[in-house]
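User: Please predict the structure of the protein below. I'd like the answer in structure-token form so I can feed it into my own downstream comparison script.

Assistant: Understood. Taking the following sequence of 153 residues as input:
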Amino acid sequence: MSGFENKLAEMGVTLPDAPAPAANYVPYVQVGDTLYVSGQISANADGFITGKLGDDMDVDAGAAAAKTCAISLLAQVKAACGGDLDRLVRVVKLTGFVNSTGDFGDQPKVVNGASDFLAEALGDAGRHSRSAVSAASLPFGVAVEIEGIFQIK
């Protein structure tokens, strides 16, 4: 088990198999040492985590949904690295999309669920730049979708 995976295990997190794309795209593209990972939607073992922030979902539930996106992002990174998560150098940038009402303004607090998780799991390698934006709707009615850019070796 890799160093990063040991830390994840200490946190009680096991990376799932990398989710398959839901449409006509690839889950990631590598250009040099940069890995672009397609948007990962909020889901867990029970299925999609759906909801609209500012309507039927609160910030804490949204942040928990964002954390599941981060876990899926790491699963994609691991797959892109041939199963060796220690090839990850750092998280460069996340872009988070939050399914929210027009008057909801706490998108950054929701996406913190992913950012806080990555910083805890990866230390300095998990600190990243970020955008957190509202979306009128997301695929399958999910609460959150996050895409990421990573540096790998």
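That's the full token string. The helical segments are 3-10, 59-80, 107-122.
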